[in-house]
Amino acid sequence: MKHYIPAFAVHLFTATGAGLALVAMLAAGTHDWSMMYLWLLAALVVDGIDGPLARKFNVKKYAPQWDGVLLDLIIDYLTYVFIPAYALFQSGLLPGWPGWIAALVVCLTGAIYFADTRMKTADNSFSGFPGCWNMVVLVFFAVDMPKPLMMGIVAVLALAQFFPLKFIHPVRTRRFRPLSLAMMVAWVGVSFWVGFDDFQPTRLAQILLIITSSYLLFIGVAMQIWPIAASKARRSK
Fold it and tell me: Tens digit of pLDDT for each residue in 92-106?
């Protein structure tokens, strides 16, 4: 029992993400986009913490009646995909038919990706863009960019979910993990700052958001390229 209680508590902690998704959706329903994103960021923090807690308290052994991975995926789909897709259209970021198309593409491709049994690589990174549309749409809110560019980003990332491109897990991917964790913490901090400023960020906040987002988006692909480049360099000597 002494092991079961903390293990089950971890499942309950993960489940709080569903409550955070609900209040985020309620905020979105009143067009309070700042509060929506603050709740989604809180859910992101929960998602970043529950995995290490699950491994620490060995939930698979001591509370196996509940599938923590399935629970996590259900909540992640709501907070990473469904609510951001709703916000993308309903906020007016992409109004009209482009918004409908983008929101449908995000929801449909995200659902397929989250059901893909091959989403994790050997080094605990993700194979394909991991459907983190909450992070993408937040950047759309914070950084003024042309609508065609937003549509292009949505299209490229939607396709990237189905190609063997590597995207890091900031907590579980070991290579560059200290730097990746620092970048993730910085991204979350800047995002809270932007949310509390009602998406009227300073130029500094926009620059930091672009830098941290770019690192988290592209460092995994760079990891794929680097060993190949290093190997070719050694063979050419």
Answer: 999 999 999 999 999
55 C-beta neighbours (distance < 10 Å), count:
12
Query: Which is nearest to 173 in space by CA: 232, 219, 112?
Result: 219
Question: Coil, helix or strand for 34?
Answer: helix
Let me know if 9 is exposed, middle or buried by CB neighbors in 10 A (0-12, 13-18, 19+): middle
Tens of pLDDT along 158-180?
Answer: 999 999 999 999 988 999 999 99
Task: Dig out the tokens for 140 from the structure.
Answer: 């759309």
Tokens of residue 32, six digits: 């309070």
What does the alpha-carbon distance between residue 229 and residue 231 come to, in Å, rounded to a whole number? 5
Fold held by 4-229: Four Helix Bundle (Hemerythrin (Met), subunit A) (1.20.120)
Distance between CA atoms of residues 31 and 131, nearest Å = 23
50 Cβ neighbours under 8 A, 6+ residues apart: 10, 13, 14, 17, 68, 72
> pTM (2 decimals)?
0.90
